[in-house]
User: What shape does this take?
Amino acid sequence: MSSTVNTSPKTFRVKSFGCQMNVYDGERMAELLAAEGMSAAGEGDDADLVVLNTCHIREKATEKVYSDIGRLRRKDGSAPLIAVAGCVAQAEGEEIMTRAPSVKVVVGPQSYHRLPEMVAEAASGKRATETDMPAEAKFAALPKRRKSAPTAFLTVQEGCDKFCTYCVVPYTRGAEISRPFADLVEEAKLLVAGGAREITLLGQNVNAWQGEDDKGRSIGLDGLARTLAADPDLKRIRYTTSHPNDMTDGLIAAHGELEKLMPFLHLPVQAGSDRVLKAMNRSHTADSYLKLLDRIRAARPDIALSGDFIVGFPGETDAEFEATLRLVDAVGYAQAFSFKYSPRPGTPAATMPDHVPAPVMDERLQRLQAALNRDQLAFNQASLGKTCQVLVERRGKHPGQWLGKSPWLQSVHFVGESEIGQMVTVKLVEAGPNSLAGQLI
Ligand code: SAM
Ligand code: SF4
Assistant: This one.
């Protein structure tokens, strides 16, 4: 029999799965634990506390949590104190407690500010669960941001009211809320003071963010971006993920006017067939999406587009899938994410008729990904010869090599004198499917 750590943990590890918002939440949890005097376990070292910050978006992601829990062992064979956070905790809290007796803490995405006290409770022998959804209390209770990598995430909006019929997010993250303007300006300032040169504003529907500026005027995400851009030490602003229906005229115009707003937009479409889009409750058509892209490209002709796709939504026919391929051809994405439909318990699509057989989904996903990979390579090749700025994020594998991102979110490597956090100018001289080589100018 193996034992479990049941004294107050001194070291911790936070493992985040899934979306960028989980990465942000994971960072905030680490800051919270550090503020309590715990230290992050070094690479390869045992941790007294392991926080699994989970993702519930697809079935595979959920199953991974249970297999991870089973495998968590310290070098002496004992189990660390295990906390499950994130969307699986929210959706399956009770089930986790029954299925995995080694889990001592279950904490939902809106309650993780309570993690330290729950860990203390668990260390004293009691299991602790918290999955309430009190929208903004969490942010107020988190410690102030201090150090930052050159690229930082800043959650500005949480939750979703769109209820796409396949998606668990409205149930696990709750209703849409926008964090207040003043809090975001302050957090951005602290991130920049801590070393951030690029901030990515995050939200499940980030472009639905709304707030009041310091003069009481109501503003949208473009207004927030304009305010943040006034900080001379902040060089770049990005935002993700956007919903096509919340792409306002103001935000589109900002892409043409605001130099610090990077020419990259992740705008998921999901499918190319209007019948499927309606069954998904997406509230846009293929045509309205393409027209929207025309307006965005008119404002910022070099914008790189990215998207999300689901193949094999219940009832999707071969002809309807072909419509997705036609849409991909029409857009020419710079990058994209594509998934097989995964039925999620409690969502309307899970009980729709005519689920698509797994081999058909496999084949559709392969064809879609071949088209998306072709377009990604073509986009990178079309960048050859361009001169652009790269924000240096880390050292590369080879001596003297550095890695960073182009304005279009392409990974760029180059060799030369540089340092992390620097903006350098490079000429793009070689293009592969996933990265480009640059020459320092
Ligand atoms: N709010 C964003 C939007 O509407 O585009 C994205 C939210 S979700 C975290 C990211 C992506 O996961 C979605 O765009 C969708 O492509 C995919 N996804 C969500 N539910 C899914 C499901 N049940 N099966 C397969 N993919 C799913
Ligand atoms: Fe999920 Fe749709 Fe909301 Fe995106 S917009 S989080 S896909 S319900």
User: Anything to note?
Assistant: The mean pLDDT is 95. The two ends are 61 Å apart (CA to CA). The chain is about 35% helix and 25% strand. The CA atoms of residues 113 and 139 lie 8 Å apart.
